[in-house]
Write a structure and sequence with these properties.
The protein is α+β, with helices and mostly antiparallel strands. It is built from three helices and nine strands. The strands form two sheets. Strands 2, 4, 5, 6 and 8 form a five-stranded antiparallel beta sheet that branches.
């Protein structure tokens, strides 16, 4: 059997196709379309595979606008926050990002991200507002979360590719540049 086909058969085993490194590459995109009012914050809970060896990246990217009939002056504010459960510390919250949100049709862009040093079993996304009574903040966008694959998985694939290329070049000297 030639070296390249053998290498292609063995590469998934070496890189651990069923391992945490492969799982770490899973990307979850949660579409969000919700409202929050001054007395009703919004919270979304999203399960994950628990993994202490890979960092977790969280990102919400979307828009917000005030609707309804607020009883007070605008703009209102929208606070965005992430949280998760740490096995040692318990529930951990990020600092809150605050955005000024104006009356419809003005759209306020929201783009926040955070990295957790491990992949918790669950992550949460929170929206809260101080928009005056009678006003609602409409929020729409995507909450994306993923465990970052370990660099060694990429290094293993790159090393296997270089070995295969080197073996091919050795057997095909006419392919070398002059």
């Amino acid at each position: 059997m030639k070296p390249l086909p053998v290498l292609l058969l063995v590469a998934p085993l070496i890189c651990g196709a069923g391992s945490a490194a492969a799982r770490a590459q899973a990307l979850a995109v949660e579409p969000i379309n919700t409202i929050t009012t001054w007395d009703h914050p919004w919270e979304g809970l999203f399960p994950n595979d628990f993994d202490l060896t890979h960092p977790k990246r969280l990102r919400f990217e979307g828009i917000a606008t005030v609707g309804g009939s607020p009883s007070g002056p605008l703009p209102g504010t929208l606070s965005v926050q992430f949280d998760w459960v740490d096995p040692v510390l318990g529930k951990v919250y990020t600092p809150a990002w605050t955005f000024s949100v104006f009356y419809t049709p003005t759209l306020t862009p929201i783009d926040v991200s955070w990295e957790i040093p491990f992949c918790p079993a669950q992550v949460s996304l929170h929206f809260a507002t101080d928009t005056p009574d009678g006003g609602v903040v409409n929020v729409a966008g995507n909450f994306t979360h993923w465990c970052v694959p370990e660099p060694s998985a990429f290094a293993a694939v790159a090393a296997l590719g270089l070995l295969a290329f080197g073996g091919w070049r050795r057997r095909h000297p006419q392919a070398r540049a002059c």
